[in-house]
Design brief:
mainly alpha; 4 helices; elongated
Length: about 140
């Protein structure tokens, strides 16, 4: 395995770890808001998702894409957030589609959350790697 392949493998591994951490943050907040605040799964998700994005950005910037971030943190976060929002549209569409296709999942929305997260994962990594954290990108 050459240096570029090792770097890609490391980035993908950390991106996956970050996604797992983000999923736990998202799922925990979603579950708590549904249980304690009696919010619907969709309303709770509107709160849990931004928290998860911020956590994943911090982990990815430090580990998955170490040394490839922008000097301007606001600009980098904005770019990361834009990518994540497109991924979120995919994620949210799958989440809602699962809840509508299988109504019993309303009682266990974490399953629908996992399905949405899986679809968005591939898009988010590819888009982040190819654009914001591309080794071809200049600062």
């Amino acid at each position: 395995m050459d240096k570029a392949q090792r770097r890609l493998t490391k980035s993908l591994g950390w991106f996956a770890a970050s996604g797992a951490i983000g999923f736990l943050v998202d799922a925990t907040i979603l579950t708590l808001l549904m249980g304690m605040a009696s919010l619907s799964p969709i309303a709770a998700r509107a709160i849990s998702f931004p928290a998860a994005v911020t956590v994943t950005w911090l982990v990815n910037r430090r580990h998955a894409f170490a040394g490839r971030g922008l000097d301007n943190l606001r600009l980098e976060y904005s770019g990361y957030l834009a990518i994540q929002l497109v991924g979120a549209l995919l994620n949210f569409w799958v989440f809602v589609a699962c809840l509508k296709a299988w109504p019993p999942l309303v009682e266990l929305p974490v399953v629908a959350l996992a399905a949405g997260a899986a679809v968005a994962f591939a898009f988010n990594f590819a888009a982040s790697q190819a654009t914001l954290y591309s080794s071809r990108r200049t600062r």
